[in-house]
Structures
1.
Amino acid sequence: MPIVYLTEDPSVRASCPPLKPRQQEVSKAYFAKREEKAQYKTIIKDHVTAKGETLSKIANKYKVSVKDVKRTKNTKYLQVGETVKVTIKEKKGVEVKFVKLNKATIGEDVYIIVETKHLEEETVLINILQGQEDVLAKKDAPLTVQQDSQEVTKIQEKVGNYCKEEEVSNKDDFKDWAIVKVKLQPKTAADQKAWNNGLECAGTKKAMLFLLVDVHSENSISNFKSEYILYKGYKKEKDDSTIPNHFLNEEGTWFEVTNSKTIHIYHDGTISKVDLKNAEKVSYVYNAENDKEYNICTCDLLEIDERLKGVSDDKKIEHEVKVGFDKNKTVVYDHDSSRKKYTYSDGTIRTYGKFYNPDKKTNYRLVTYKKGSNKKFIVKMPSSLNKNIGDNSISFSFTRTARRYCGPEHLACFIGALAEVGYSIKSGGACEEDGTSYPSISHINGQSVDTSYLDDIMEQKFINAMHKFGFLSQLRGSGKKVFSHTSDGGKLHNNHLHSGGLSPNYK
Ligand SMILES: [Zn+2]
């Protein structure tokens, strides 16, 4: 009897790939924030020139710059009836991106993202679970949060349902995702209080959260069973279930929820005294005369090594920067390429750059900031503010400065003064993220704020308002009017008011 051997023919194999099953999958689940970028399209419009029109008038009419208006005739002057081509940028929606978020504070809006495969139109059920210890709920129990102002414990969303109505240019990126926005807070005052108590009692002052994801709706179109779905999460310890559908934000990382601390600012010049220990954010609330409360902003809180008062060295010529700094930590500034920052092994920071000192007529300054032995809190100031508070407003923006951090109470008192006057103030800020404050030697740890001058009458009102909120040491330029509450700060202060020496009035 002949023996038949079966061997594989490699050519057959290559031309006929094995069938791949459509493996339904829940790949990832995590918390995120939404970021968006406006998208523009360019259109070119023909405009027929009317009598009396110039290129700049036409540019004005279409709200474009003159270079976006192109003539079509070769004559010396623009002619009546001449067609000009106007290039217009039109907004055509936004591009959306979700960035993973590992931390948030109570009351914040966050997104939950569930990334799936082959689960189009299926409903995803999500629980936010309390991990590690009892804090916002019992350990492993689901949290009640808000979705569209409704309380929810079991959160539901269809895969691919996100931004259907919206003008989002990259909708396809999310067709396999279930995306929900939730507010991390229960609805009733009693429940909110329970959350706050839970955080207060927790050793870490944090709640570690994770997600439980299920995809087995009864009306499922494909009639699948959940065990056919590949969940790429993990199984909880001592869990009877065999399904690995618990998800940490990313491997080894819980989603952390903390409490934000609130500093209240009162119209009478006082602020509330708040212990910022263990906080990650600070919220600012303005209390107006009519007892109305206005949420102004929430800022990141940083605990930094204290900086000692800087020592400056002004010269006409460029300095030679001494050796010994950590080359990897050298910073060149975005807003001023001549400026560099050097860090030394003992924690000393030196900043050097072009800086004209009108009192000494020098062009370069080097400031050495030594590290102190204490810790200081600073907050990241909002990049600008423009908030209506009744008939008045709180409004400021920055000049070209890297000093966008400030002491937490300094910001509160600055906001109080802004509310008092209602003017739009330009600020040179207070300090940088590391507590240094080049070119100033005295703004260290964000303890003073610079502002550009207004006209003399408005300026005096603003100085009074800063004084009322406890800035007791204000410097004016030697060429300026002798404003009350100020002392002479030399020519250096001819272009800005310096407000320091804060001694807040506590409620
Ligand atoms: Zn200053």
2.
Amino acid sequence: MAAHFTGLKKALAYAFLADQEHGQQALTTARLKTCEGCPNYKQETKQCGVCGCFMDIKAPLATNRNPMKLGRIEVTHCPKGLWPGIEASVKKQKVAIVPIGGCDYDLAQYYKN
Ligand code: SF4
């Protein structure tokens, strides 16, 4: 039963959160590896303790809606700016959305408010 509930919760989270995926498995893997070594990461549910997102849903995304900001579309980033840099190809697609060159820390600062 708990597994079904988690599955439903994740399906709803994906439906709300996801905008575009970046399609780069290496980037997803690098992001998840960073989370797994982070003290904010909740291994049991694969959630970030800062933003509350499921990392297996968020890590493959290039852009997402932020539920804390009324669904604002953002370039997907770690709220603490700890993720590895976004690949140039992803950045190129997002120039219109983020007017900064942006490492992950810059993105976290940019979207802080
Ligand atoms: S998104 Fe950032 S703060 Fe959250 S668990 Fe991953 S590395 Fe830690």
3.
Amino acid sequence: MESCLFCASQFDPKTNKPEHVLLNAFGGKVTVSNLICSDCNGRLGGEIDRPLAEGFEFLRNMFILKKGDGQSPPTIVDRSDDGRQRRLKPGLVVNSRTADPVSRYFYDKEGNRHIEIKGHENAIPSMKSKLAEEIASKEGPSKEEILASIEDIEVIQTSEQEYIEKTMSFDSGGIEGMRSLMKSAILLFARQSPATRLFAASPFMEHARKFVSDGSEEQDLWWYDHHIPPQIPQLSELFGPLFNLFVVFNHPKRGLMAYIRTYNIGAMRLQLSNKKFPRRHVPVHLVSNPIDRTWSENVDGIDDLVNWVIANGPNPPGEDKTATRHMEHMIMEANQITGSNIQINRKIV
Ligand SMILES: [Zn+2]
């Protein structure tokens, strides 16, 4: 038996639902079965993981970033300025008529019945059937007769695609998203060795665990970084422009910390414990490339980054043009790699 890091209940890891260290929605493939119970896993999935994933759903959709298990990125239901609802398929492809299906009949002056059906080709048979049922119920002839009479109706297909212009915004899902990132950092750290597992379950990390579990004790546990270090060429080369990065390290003054970059856009620091992990190095890193779903643990070449993070305390809040420029550059690179044509025309924070 194991005990859950977040609720202390006992469970059998053999029958326990595996939990992704990095969210499945973010392309994470690494799972653990012995750190968090199925109950907490299920509850936190809806409560904190979903808001984090939704904060980046436009990005995941537009660059067609698949989930860790290979599933497609989300289709987004978007309400445009004209009030019309549109479904944005991966790649931000909108099928305007699909969102606006037509199924009706009317009579002209001569008394001829006209039928109009517009919709996605997959939906046409059921639309025909429904309309036939409606006519039959009002006008007498059987549904089958009517269906036969509209068998050869000219159907307007909706294969035509339309591209939309959209102002993007990304966020990390607020406090809930922060809790989800904290959960990932704790799981990543705890799974390294019996010693890290013990430390993760100890009172030294109680605040961090409580923050994940119920959102309490949030003060001073996390900071957004408004200044993303301008370059980590080693990582961009290996993991593309949109990499996700988790680093857990000892900060000389602040104890055990995590530094997290989401899609190389957002950056934040979390405090796992105000006590340092009693080993000289805590070499815990995870980085992933959501574009082709590769990932690696304990990568080389991030010493500079960790040093930068340690040297820079939490930043004062405020607008940061550096981050915006960085993001424009990163989107441009992602366009080149994925063949997309995403225009950034607005500041994103
Ligand atoms: Zn639990």
4.
Amino acid sequence: MSEIKQGVIIGFLGKTQDRFSEYQAPVTTEQKLEFVSKIDGFTGVEMVFPYENEGPAETKALMDKYGLEFAAINVNIKKETEWVPGALSRPDKGIRDRAVAMIKKAKDFAKAVGAPHVTCCPLSDGYDVLFQINYKTAWNHMVETFAEAADYLPEIPLFLEPKYSETRVHCQIDSTAKGVLLLKDIQCKNTGITIDMGHSLQSQENPAQALSLIYENGFDAYIHTNDNDTKADWDLIGASRHFLHYIELMFWAQEYGYNKYFTTDASPRIFDVLEFFNRHSEITTGAYKLAQKLNRQQILEMMRIEDYNGLMQMVNKEIYRI
Ligand SMILES: [Mn+2]
């Protein structure tokens, strides 16, 4: 049985802010990487491009110094002023082209540092009010721009991360299914969906079922771990509100032979940073191991013969242990 690999989006290891407050102190990228190496069981790094890195050579040297591996490069196409109202779906071709160019640069960077793939969450594409955007051109621009970025440097696959809300009130790619629909439309095999546990919950999905949908449609998947109250993307510590969902996601990830990093997309905010990630690591590793111990064959057989009572009993006894 394979062991879980865990990592973290290192932006959460420094100063973060929301509309009301700032949290923690600013730190350098080197300090963030040193910090990752101190978290129990973490070896993976998801780095935001282009804001958290020097050149590829310096970045690689720092990764080696702290014994870390890349889980992914996360390309940010929402921070620049012109992309705050959207990037890939906008009517202005210049704005779209510069966003595509940024994704291509992120792929070049990923290749140079040995990262396995690039992930992109087009958070600013969408709308805040009705009668704001042209749905027809917005969708077609999303398809065209993402296709162009996906086709570039095919050895570095491009992953799309759906999210229902924020920074736009209603994001373009607002569910796993819509992400899959976009990937089907662009017909490029070197693509995948980044399934963020909290985003999936906010879209009123069941993350395990959403993961299965990605694989059954022939695409690759990459997992971000966290939790929330389903109303907003709070980036809480994993399984703090959806324990059974967490176990079920692990069960199906194992069923599909998932062997990428489980990357933590959680924000410590008021909690002690190191202990926050240690607790996240603990519950995520624990959930993974618990899912490995379940009697997989028996569970699948109970599903086949529709033994719902047997399955509920399994959940009570083997998962909740009551
Ligand atoms: Mn995420």
